[in-house]
Amino acid sequence: MKWEQAISDYTYYLKIERALADNTIENYRLDILKLTNYLSEFNIDASPIEIDEETIQNFIYTISKLLNERSQSRLISGLKSFFDYLIFEDYRRSNPLELIESPRLGRKLPDTLSTTEIDQLIEAIDLSHPQGHRNKAIIETLYGCGLRVSELINLKLSHLHFEHGFIKVLGKGNKERLVPINPYTQKYINLYIDLRNEQEIMKDSTDVLFLNRRGSGLTRAMIFTIVKQLAKRAHIEKNISPHTFRHSFATHLLENGANLRVIQQMLGHESITTTEIYMHLDKSHLRSVLQKYHPRA
Fold it and tell me: Is there a catalytic annotation at residue 252?
């Protein structure tokens, strides 16, 4: 089996069997290409079936000089998954990365914005600009519902169930969940929809909520650009991204007494341990919970 065929079969498996997002699949593919580029550079003739532990170890050692610990960990995890797939398909009997450990990572704490900073960002939006109301609705939706960027750009008009106070969100692995949406956020989405319906819309985007000026759906890169430009205009020096609003959404809910399990459901986290990262953000809240509920407080 050649590398090209193995990579093609594996990416097809990730898309069809595991229903992973295109960006995730591309990251897996790029990790394997790092290995094949290494083999080519050092003239190592080893197929996916033949490559051994020593070659993999030398590759990891070489590339570790170029990557930070987090990137190394993701690379090792991605390659382990690739060779596990080959074992599953009976192409190999063992995983050459089985004894290779990922670097120990400290849990990275997410950057968040205060409510004041979020208000500053929203106030920096030029509502006289043709896309002003759209951008305001985007920021309010990111913060008001805690959505991922991919979930935001894939949001449909038919997913809006304002009469019931929910929106339907298509999360990782094409898993659907219902996310509550408050009337405040609904108001700005409705204001944008009135303007949206006045523009010319491409046939394949008639149900897409957030559109660009040409009437097509927005890209991830465009959402990042909108956020970066607003941060610059609002003189916010933090290195923020669209995901920062998701972190802020979860943090502010926790600070105001929301249950961690409820936050987990709204964010679409499969594991509660992913949501627990927000527990560090407000030690005063944790102390107040202890004082309120513990018999000895």
Answer: no
